[in-house]
Amino acid sequence: MHVSLRLITLLLIVAGCAAPLSSHEQESYTGSLAELRNKPKVWLVVRRGALVDASGADASIISEVYREGSHRTTFPRTFNLIARRLNKYMKEHGSISGARSLTDADFILFFNVLEIRRPLGTPYAYGELFVILNQKPSPRILWKTRSSGKFADDAVGDFISELKAVRGEK
């Protein structure tokens, strides 16, 4: 009896202390990929984000993209992997093209590298992919991978699949 009372008390404490969703998980992104229908120019950014402010995760992600030097990548293998997938999509459908500069882009793909795993000595980047509508004066996040820590190839595959669905492409 005494042991079961302790167990029930412990379960109640654990259930009461369950952490609420972080503000980043609670945020609902305004808009959808449907807003990209008539926006063909894309800019790709791949980098390891700095600290993310939990109270304003969207703002910290967007400021990371516009941070000075975001046009240079420190992860060329990951950048090229994502660019290859996008180029294949561009050749098949012709509905998007690469922008010449960040200011010229209609939307931005930002892959935030969370970790590098090295199975069998080959580095693979895992992270989150964000689609940011590049509108002035206030850019906003339209889409994010469903789970954080996705392999870069899987994340861009999810984006392309949803973009095809929105644009009615096969």
Strand portion, in percent?
15-25%
| Mean pLDDT over the full residue set | 80
Helix-strand category? alpha/beta
What is the rounded distance between the termini?
63 Å
Largest sheet: 6 strands, mixed
Count of extended strands? 6
Q: Can you summarize this structure?
A:
37% of the residues lie in helices and 22% in strands. With 170 residues, it is of the alpha/beta class.
What do you see in this structure?
Helix content is 37%, strand content 22%. By secondary structure, the protein is an alpha/beta fold. Strands 1, 2, 3, 4, 5 and 6 form a six-stranded mixed sheet that branches. A hairpin with a 6-residue loop joins strand 3 (107-117) and strand 4.
